[in-house]
Amino acid sequence: MPEKYHININETPARFPLVSKYAIVETREKCTGSCRKCVRKNCAFGVFKLNSHNMQKAKERQYLYGCEGCFRCVQECPGGVFSRVKNPDWDNLGGGYWTPDIIHQTWKQAENGRVPVSGAGYRGKFAACGFDSIWTDMSEIVRPTRDGIHGREYINTSVDINRRPHHLSFSQDGKLDRSYTTVVEIPIPLLFEVPKFGIINRRVLNAMVSAASELETLMFLRPEEYSDDLEPLASSIVPRLKASNQVQFNNLIKKCRIVEIDYCENILQIIIAAKTINPDVLISVGIELDGKAVERAIETSELDEVDLLHFYADANGNGLGSNQPRFLSSLIQEMHSALVERGLRFRTNLVFSGGIALAEHLAKAIIYGADALAISTPLLLALECHMCYRCLSGESCPVSMEEIPENWGRQRILNLAGAWRDQLIEVMGAMGIREARRLRGDIGRSMCFENLEKECFGPIFGKSVAKGSV
Amino acid sequence: METRKEVVEFPLAKLAPSRYHNTISQYIIKRSASCNECGLCARLCPQGVHSSGNVYSGALKPYMDRCTGFECAANEYYCIDRCPQKALSIQLNPLLETLGDYRWTAEMLLGHWVMAETGDLPVTKLEYSTGKSNGGFDRIRFKTPRQNDYLHIPDKEIDTSVKLNRRNDGRLPLSINIPVYGGGMSFGSTALPVLIGRARAAKKLGTLTCTGEGGYHDKILPYAGNVITQVATGLFGVREETIRRAPMVEFKYAQGAKPGLGGHLLGDKVTAEVAAIRQTVIGNALFSPFPFHSVYSVEDHKKQVDWVKQVNIEGLISVKVSTPVDCDMVAVGIYHAGAHVIHFDGSYGGTGAAPDIAKKNIAMPIEYAIPRVHRFLVSEGIRDQITLIASGGIRSAMDVAKAIALGADGVVIGTAELVAVECVRCGHCESGRGCPRGIATTDSELGQVISEEWAERRIVNMYLAWRKQWCELLRQYRMRSIKELVGRSDLLVHLDYLEEQERNNYLSYGG
Ligand code: SF4
Ligand code: SF4
Ligand code: SF4
Ligand code: SF4
Q1: Helix A328-341 × helix A293-301 angle, to 10°
Q2: Nearest-by-CA chain B residue for A464
Q3: Ligand 1 atom 5: the closest Cα is on which residue?
Q4: 3-state DSSP call for residue B27?
Q5: Residue numbers in A near B492 (CB within 8 A)
Q6: B residues 143-202 near A, CB within 8 Å?
Q7: Which atom of ligand 3 is nearest to the CA of B31?
Q8: Chain B closest CA to A107's CA: distance in Å?
Q9: Which residues of B87-120 are buried (b: 16+ CB within 10 A; e: fewer)?
């Protein structure tokens, strides 16, 4: 059994006030300011105390953020001075796929590193598309005991990066064939890559890479983003090479354990060239998740030199190169099955990028057939990004991303990864699964919306006619 | 079909207004300073929104939660228009935008608060029966009934009782007067006055409530005949005498809101009293393991059931599980181990605290599990020997009726009872000292905000209002007993399964 892996969590407060969903408004008009037992003192979350500084100055309506919505002040104030309103800034957070709720939840996890817990049951939609259309299974009594994150039994979240040989082979002098001996295992099925927006300066990059290094995972980056101060962390870096620039970065190939090469026609030649420079280096092939992805995956996984296939969807988890793109979850499933059918799935490992926004996406993507997932946007969110995209047009960043202290950023990312891993373990624990490797592709231990509707409701209601109404 | 012998007497509703100074209402009516207290509005409004007060106080604050809103403009008594001073104004309460969620909408909360206050259905227009989650119960409707079927009989002639023991094994012939009983809430997670209020309400109504896994508080003893003792994986406070005195003992294998995970009580909530009852250490967080560490097979489970049957020679056995893929098989296993009640707790239910990831993503919603299990039990030929109880995200009287039509005999309710005592579903039950509204907390200061009597009244009132809805529904289908509704899924439609034209017929239909 591997040594117990542990992520060091450390409460790391945000530098700016969090944007919260609701606010309490105080209308001064009716407050006489003379109640002996003013309800403001009773707020269990100290909202009025936190805001008292601003409030003294205010003459008019005052929005107080951080309200947790117990409605006590609203209901108890004899003058009815308080009301609760939606924070107008809330809806400006992110957009589309990256909902304000996701952003907020990510901030919180980066701050405290804890699994989000709340009372009073589930409050969301019944089901939706993509990752929201499946439920993971759980075991009632018949499976071995698991105590989740508080358990005494270790649940292993490690996954392999190196390919697995289908048989052992030996050289002529009877020794184990050397080319199969490089083993790279990462203790958490989560890799990092450089976000496509945000202020990516040295501080930000160092925070991300050093967090990857501490987590013993890997970070993909373009060699142009590499600089010598990252050298001590080189074993956590996977440079993404193109056919055209590979020679230029030969030095980097020597230092790294893994390199990624963008898929191209003559991919084998490039791989061989890289292997000549560093025979131990593992090879990842970067493939865009477009209409040709399956074909290319089949082609490359047949190559003995390839360890990892890394597929890129867009930031919202949509496939590329189509007007009506399919979502990551079904693309993963399709890829996994295509390789299983051809007997190729066991040879390489599949990493997917794009659209992984919550810990549950991580768990579900693995169930659909991924070995590991790569994330970028959540890293920025851990650093307090609002997804306002002002940086893309060169405007100033509302949270001064360019000035983050490196250690602060590193710890926030560690906290997020820790919270995600704990959530993955919660799901695995409930399923009675002890190994992340066993979770992979275990679609039979999940339930999808369409099947449940068909099996449970079909006999009652007939055939569903809804076109994506959920 | 059974014929009814006795008519059950239900208690009368007793008014139980909000504990708070300002009620949250759908509309806000403002009376400006130009009001000269002529008293016309008080005389006009049939809902009693305005009151002229008395000679000393002048006009009182309007009872805004009684106002029927903009619709009233069509009436000649519309106070806003009639006020000679133009002193009145009406607006939609902007607060509603910040209240509730997809499952428990603001209107559903408001509706239930009115029911809990008055014991009657709201007169104002509120959609309190369905939420906006866009699936499951929220897309299921009862078919429009045929007019000729309507049964003209009063509520008191309609039977809403559920038989819990169908095994004819000589144990208690237990029956509950309404098709719901209270779900497990432990001392430690919920304030004592609320727990006692629930037990008192159960006794008044002739149904049951459940201890949860936190042990048996002495103050619950007077209601022992209506209290289920829960035996959960942590075995906190489970002793032979608590098992012996219960009319029904419930094994809790799993909980829908956190299936596959054990219970969790944060250290802050483990006060001296909680620790004493649970036989644990003050301030130490309590984790219940998952699952029972002595049960790894159906045979092990049978041994547990046999043990309880030895200790309590009269009581019934209920087994609470959540909803995995093979829930139908699980049900059969439970039946063969000798249980009287199979209780499935679906994944969208409430609880003191659960990881958000577990609430939404693990195990299936109860809407799927009910028909699946019901059908399987029928095909195994054992459906009539076991009582099928459902829970987990069942919020309103109509949800209960839909669950029954899908195949359940009855339902377990947790969250709605808390809503009755003015829970706003803010979700902070587990944080720090617990619920800021004094419901899910053991903090002595916060918990005292509620009186037992008030909690009892509110819960009784809500269920009386629910019973009115059930009775009306049954009458519409020419039924005299809710037992006739069990498994009548032919009376249901699902909006996603209807062609557009037909669907439109149901969109405005409240049930
Ligand atoms: S509603 Fe509750 S949490 Fe919000 S400010 Fe008022 S007392 Fe505090
Ligand atoms: S907060 Fe806005 S400006 Fe700053 S990094 Fe994020 S998207 Fe860019
Ligand atoms: S009708 Fe107008 S003036 Fe008369 S009591 Fe009502 S609000 Fe006041
Ligand atoms: S903390 Fe909020 S959700 Fe929990 S019981 Fe209290 S009011 Fe309800």
Answers
A1: 40
A2: B497
A3: A67
A4: strand
A5: 460-461
A6: none
A7: 7
A8: 15
A9: bbebeebebbebbbbbbbbbbbbbbbbbbbbbbe
Please give the average per-residue pLDDT across B312-334, as a whole number: 92
In angstroms and rounded to an integer, the radius of gyration of the C-alpha atoms of chain B is 24
Q: Name A181's Cβ contacts closer than 8 Å, sequence gap at least 6.
A: none
Testing ligand 1's pocket by substitution, the residue of A51, A62, A71, A85 carrying the most ligand atoms inside 8 A of its CB is A71
What ligand 2 atom has the least distance to the C-alpha of A400?
Answer: 4
Q: Which amino acid is at B430?
A: E
Q: What's the confidence (pLDDT) of residue B286?
A: 64
List, in order, residues 6 or more apart from A293 with CB less than 8 Å away.
Answer: A287, A311, A319, A331, A335
Confidence of residue B269 (pLDDT cuts 50, 70, 90): low
Question: Which tens digits make up the pLDDT trace of A334-345?
Answer: 999 999 999 999
Q: Give DSSP secondary structure letters for B209-241.
A: EE-GGG---GGGGGGGGGEEEEEETT-TT--HH
CB A282 within 8 A of CB A349: no
Name the residue among B250, B462, B370, B356 with its Cα closest to residue A459.
B370
Region B368-390: mean pLDDT is 97
Q: In this structure, what token pair is assigned to residue B454? A: 């008030």
Alpha-carbon span B108 to B155, nearest angstrom: 24
> Considering the entire predicted model, what is its pTM?
0.92
Distance CA A132, CA A125 (A): 9
Instruction: Convert the pLDDT of each residue in B17-61 to its tens digit.
Output: 998 988 888 998 988 888 888 888 888 999 888 876 655 555 677
- Cis status, amide bond into B291, omega within 30 of 0: yes
User: A330 alpha carbon to ligand 3 midpoint, in Å?
Assistant: 64
